[in-house]
């Protein structure tokens, strides 16, 4: 209750074993900080006690309440959130219409094509984003997921800077071409 006026929060709980229960409690608290404009949250590498789908769902719901956010840096690598969890994160993040900078590290979460499609749909609604850093390495993303990501990213017409990590997936030539076609249409992209 006393932190309700907080505008910037950086919380590093990587390698901290917070598990589902901790992620749910953390999400509940963060969702009350409605004046936040900048949130950096590192819950990466919690492989002993993953936050899982339930934790990712709570975080997505809570982050979606932070409509004043202009910057979001979220590291959930190696947390077993799968496609269900990333879909819920995408549902929350797509509500952040004031967002200009988005960094998502979801490496090693087995999101597959379904997760990539959900994420692409969510990201595509963030038309004010100018900076995007997306790490989706090692997630079993194939052609369908790469096409959906490309379509979503292609809607970010104000994008000036982007870093996209898709190594160790199976996007094949078709997925790479589709990504390239969509990204090639971003006329403001400089780096």
Description:
The protein contains six helices and six strands; from the N terminus they run E-H-E-H-E-H-E-H-E-H-E-H. Helix content is 38%, strand content 16%. The model has no long low-confidence stretch (mean pLDDT 92). It has a six-stranded parallel sheet with strand order 1-2-3-4-5-6, with no helix packed on it. The termini are far apart. Helix 1 packs parallel to helix 2 (52-63) and helix 2 runs parallel beside helix 3. It has helices at residues 19-30, 52-63, 82-93, 112-123, 143-154, 172-184, and strands at residues 8-12, 38-42, 71-75, 101-105, 131-135, 161-165.
Topology:
Layout: E1 8-12, H1 19-30, E2 38-42, H2 52-63, E3 71-75, H3 82-93, E4 101-105, H4 112-123, E5 131-135, H5 143-154, E6 161-165, H6 172-184
Parallel strand pairs: 1-2, 2-3, 3-4, 4-5, 5-6
Cross-sheet strand order for the largest sheet: 1-2-3-4-5-6
According to DSSP, the number of beta strands is 6
Name the overall outline.
globular
Name the helix and strand elements from N-terminus to C-terminus, one letter apiece: EHEHEHEHEHEH
């Amino acid at each position: 209750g006393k932190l309700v006026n907080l505008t910037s929060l950086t919380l590093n709980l990587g390698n901290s074993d917070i598990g589902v229960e901790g992620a749910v409690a953390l999400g509940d608290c963060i969702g009350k900080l409605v004046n936040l404009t900048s949130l950096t949250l590192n819950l990466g590498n919690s492989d002993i006690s993953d936050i899982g789908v339930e934790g990712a769902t709570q975080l997505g719901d809570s982050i979606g309440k932070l409509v004043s956010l202009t910057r979001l840096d979220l590291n959930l690598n190696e947390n077993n959130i799968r496609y269900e969890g990333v879909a819920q994160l995408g549902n929350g993040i797509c509500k952040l219409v004031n967002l200009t900078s988005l960094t998502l590290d979801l490496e090693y979460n087995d999101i597959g094509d379904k997760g990539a499609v959900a994420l692409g749909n969510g990201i595509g609604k963030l038309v004010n984003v100018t900076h995007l850093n997306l790490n989706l390495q090692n997630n079993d993303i194939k052609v369908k997921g790469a096409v959906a990501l490309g379509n979503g990213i292609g809607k970010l017409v104000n994008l000036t800077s982007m870093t996209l990590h898709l190594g160790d997936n199976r996007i094949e030539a078709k997925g790479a071409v589709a990504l390239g076609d969509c990204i090639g249409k971003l006329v403001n992209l400089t780096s």
